[in-house]
Design brief:
73% helix, 172 residues
């Protein structure tokens, strides 16, 4: 909530602490959890798609499952890109719930606060149709690709390092 409200165009919040204080004072504790179910609903398919795609790609480009940094980076980046693209509609709704963007609320003739994933899905469709669910998808993919590529390559490195070290300590 705080990160997204600070990122909004012409945000009235000048620091994270001031944003927390203002949101707490004007909207209460619930504002920090308004998109909680949407976040969970987004993370489960994201991680599932991400992991399954990574494993599938590793089978294709690294069938012997040896330590191969290039294959880990490529598979990790592509897996993150696919997962990000597939879950962008949920991210759009989460962002709307977190920001409570006034222009969108006014266009939809909503006074007060928007709550709930179903309401966010309806509002995105009402305002922008199907393309509205994919706004920011390219930026989301560009953000996720290097992040997931780095994460997988670091994971595979430590797995290799720890396994190799363990095997070396066993040999007489």
């Amino acid at each position: 909530v705080v990160k997204q409200r600070l990122q909004m165009y012409d945000s009235p919040h000048r620091s994270a602490l001031r944003c927390v204080w203002t949101v707490w004072r004007t909207e209460g504790l619930g504002a920090f959890y308004r998109s909680y179910t949407t976040q969970l609903t987004m993370n489960i398919p994201f991680q599932s798609i991400h992991f399954i795609t990574y494993e599938f790609l590793q089978e294709q480009v690294n069938p012997h499952r040896g330590y191969n940094p290039q294959s880990h980076i490529i598979s990790g980046g592509l897996a993150g890109a696919l997962a990000a693209a597939a879950t962008t509609p949920l991210d759009v709704c989460k962002t709307l719930l977190n920001t409570q963007e006034n222009m969108a609320l006014n266009l939809a003739n909503i006074s007060g606060r928007l709550s709930g994933m179903a309401n966010a899905f309806r509002m995105v469709y009402q305002l922008n149709g199907l393309p509205g669910y994919f706004k920011g998808m390219q930026a989301r993919i560009i953000y996720q690709m290097p992040s997931t590529a780095i994460s997988w390559s670091v994971y595979e490195f430590f797995k290799y390092f720890l396994t190799k070290h363990k095997l070396e300590s066993r040999t007489p």
